[in-house]
Design a protein that fits this description.
The protein is of the alpha+beta class and 476 residues long. The chain contains 15 helices and 20 strands. Helix 8 packs antiparallel against helix 9. The chain is elongated. Keywords: ATP-binding, Kinase, Nucleotide-binding, Serine/threonine-protein kinase, Transferase. GO terms for molecular function: protein serine/threonine kinase activity.
Length: 476
């Protein structure tokens, strides 16, 4: 029985127990040879007494010791003393992510993406050595005092050429954070770690776990039966997309590598593009020499306008094929095409007009904040634009046929819709692009008065749940 003051290997003096799990106990200890604090994980007897365990665990400890990355806790030593098999790791001054969440409830989207990006960097370094961690969770992510993230606890990690470290055929890992394939008893892969890190991101953003049940194993089974419940907070579309892809049930649909997840997490909170400042106007040179640059400038402007119209129409052919075919159906011999979306626009007379292949507001269309029923976000309700409000429509589109039967609160995460409701489109419709730059965007099917067919409204709101008054976007 381990206790304070016990020495392992005549070198590591146990100071206090700082955690315990399904594979063993973690102690803060002192390396009396080098005079430094260390973390010692002592394996439980039921695991360590496996005849092949010592050989396999030592091989994996050796592999993990080769990982040299600032986001991965260093492995110092491995040994067996007094019938105790133990692993000695770097001791981290800080607190675990689960304790930080218990204290704060949840983290901001920007902070969450920074944590996930750092953890994913460390995961990639681990995967590069052929190791799958298999137990990524908030308790195994340490936050240093300077905010840096560190992956710890390799007690059940597995090298690609090693046998599975199981105890009596048990599935290893914390049930709450297992990937669907682990729940099914299939081998864990690098994408299993990506899924577990996605669960961690969800918990950081929502302040709660995506699955709930009567016991951890019931929770584990839910992830092979249903998708995670909707995050009950407003999130920028890029951040929501990062988490949703990480949590794909099919590993083939997740981020292909931890490095790809890290890159996406950083891009999701990257700085918004800044419009270049215009140089002071100069006297235009006279004569033919001035004509070519002027023509080129007009061509560039025309191309930019055309590009904006294409994006407003839905990009990659979606809007053009769904709303009235050609963008110009008024020429000789052309036949006007009527769609349910156009009928809905006409029925809501005075509120929308056709623009390009979409619909632009004729007056500001404003909406309140998001609400949730049973954990699922609901479309916002229309409010008077003169009053403080969260969201405003900057363009509307026909709801794509392949989006009718999917979760309506996650449409902005679909690539075609994200393109149609992009920052570029929002900027082209803004009265003051500098003011709306960085606003959150979302997309919801909503029915206007007089119509019985919903239109897909691209809406925007001040960042971080802010409100505004009046109308921020061009009308008419």
């Amino acid at each position: 029985m381990l206790e304070i003051g016990f020495r392992l290997g005549d070198r590591y003096r146990l100071v206090d127990r700082i955690g315990a799990g399904g594979m063993g106990e973690v102690w803060r200890a002192v390396d009396e040879v080098l005079g430094r604090p260390v973390a010692v994980k002592a394996m439980l007897a039921m695991v360590a007494d496996d005849p092949d365990f010592a050989r396999r665990f030592q091989a994996e400890a050796t592999a993990m010791a080769r990982v040299n990355h600032p986001a991965v806790a260093s492995i110092h030593d491995y040994g067996r003393s007094h019938d105790v098999t133990y692993l000695v790791m770097e001791f981290v001054e800080g607190e675990s992510l689960d304790r930080a969440l218990a204290r704060s409830g949840r983290m901001t989207p920007e902070h969450t993406m920074r944590v996930i990006a750092q953890a994913a960097d460390g995961l990639q370094a681990i995967h590069d050595q052929g190791i799958v961690h298999r137990d990524i969770k908030p308790a195994n992510l340490m936050i240093r005092r300077d905010g840096a993230v560190l992956i710890t606890d390799f007690g059940i990690a597995r090298h690609h050429d090693a046998s599975r470290l199981t105890a009596s055929g048990a599935i290893l890992g914390t049930p709450t954070y297992l990937s669907p394939e682990q729940v099914l008893g299939q081998p864990a892969t690098a994408r299993s770690d990506v899924y577990s890190l996605g669960l961690t991101a969800y918990e950081c953003l929502a302040g709660q776990k995506p699955f709930e049940g009567e016991n951890p194993y019931a929770v584990a089974l839910q992830r092979i039966q249903s998708a995670p419940r909707t995050i009950g907070v407003n999130l920028p579309a890029p951040i929501l997309g990062v988490v949703e892809r990480a949590l794909a049930t099919d590993p083939a649909h997740r981020w292909p590598t931890a490095a790809a997840l890290a890159e996406a997490a950083r891009a999701a909170t990257g700085p918004a593009p800044v419009a270049p400042s215009r140089p002071p106007a100069a006297a235009a040179p006279a004569g033919p020499a001035a004509a070519a640059p002027a023509r080129r400038a007009r061509v560039r402007m025309l191309l930019a306008v055309l590009a904006a119209l294409v994006v407003i129409g839905g990009a990659v052919g979606w809007g053009i094929s769904k709303i009235g075919g050609s963008a110009d159906a008024s020429g000789p011999g052309a036949t006007a095409t009527t769609t349910p979306a156009k009928e809905a626009m006409v029925a809501a007379g005075g509120l929308l007009r056709e623009c390009g292949t979409g619909f632009c507001p004729l007056q500001p269309l404003c909406w309140g904040g998001m609400t949730a029923v049973n954990g699922r976000a609901q479309p916002p309700s229309r409010v008077d634009c003169a009053e403080a409000h969260n969201w405003e429509t900057f363009v509307a589109l026909e709801v794509p046929a392949d989006a009718v039967d999917v979760r309506q609160d996650s449409l902005i995460g679909r690539e075609q819709i994200a393109n149609a409701c992009s920052a570029a489109v929002m900027g082209s419709r803004s009265k003051d692009p500098d003011t709306t730059r960085g606003w959150e965007r979302d997309a919801w099917p909503m029915t206007l008065p007089g119509g019985d067919v919903p239109l897909l409204h691209c809406i925007a709101a001040p960042a971080k749940g802010g409100t505004t008054t009046g109308g921020a976007f061009v009308v008419g």
